[in-house]
Amino acid sequence: MSPAVSSWLLVLLCAASGAYCLVRAGRAGRDARGATAGEAVMGLGMALMAVPAGTGTWGPPLLLAVFCAAAAHALWLLRDGPHHAHHLVGSLAMAYMALTMTGGGPGPGHGSGHGNGAGVPLVTGALLLYFAGYVLLGGARLVTAGGDGGAPVPGESRGGAAAAAAPPRSAELVRACRLAMGIGMLAMLLTM
After folding, report:
1. What residue spans of the chain are helical by DSSP H?
2. What is this structure's pTM?
3. Minimal CA–CA distance to 95: which of 121, 57, 128, 61?
């Protein structure tokens, strides 16, 4: 498979995950709306970042600003508990990749043709380890969740009309969406 096809498949995967999270944010309870909207921003931002032709000279600084704002939002969500720490790590990772796209990092360049920096090897390696572990753990949870009948996902409100309208396998779909975004993040980090 050519790199362009792989990049477009990653764009599609991230955009679909982001769009699903955006729809979910509209239906989520007040407590879960912020985290779900953050996931939507991450998915859609990842899709934009993965476009093979690039985002132009305006793209990397704009993405850096968006992901710095997302990191600030994730930091704000941490006041509700440590279960939002993954949003902070993801936002910071995306800000880090956007920074390397602007030429802010040393090295030969981003795999999808953006910028001229590959980042700091220690930071990139630590993020690769984190997201590899996240993907493996998320995949294991998704496989073992098959018989739970759509139990709520931590951090997601299932009360009121939203719970009645949710399909029975909603929890598995949420987990699959998060897993897809983790795989996308891992793929983008591998191309640095």
Report:
1. 3-27, 30-49, 59-77, 85-101, 121-144, 160-165, 170-190
2. 0.74
3. 61
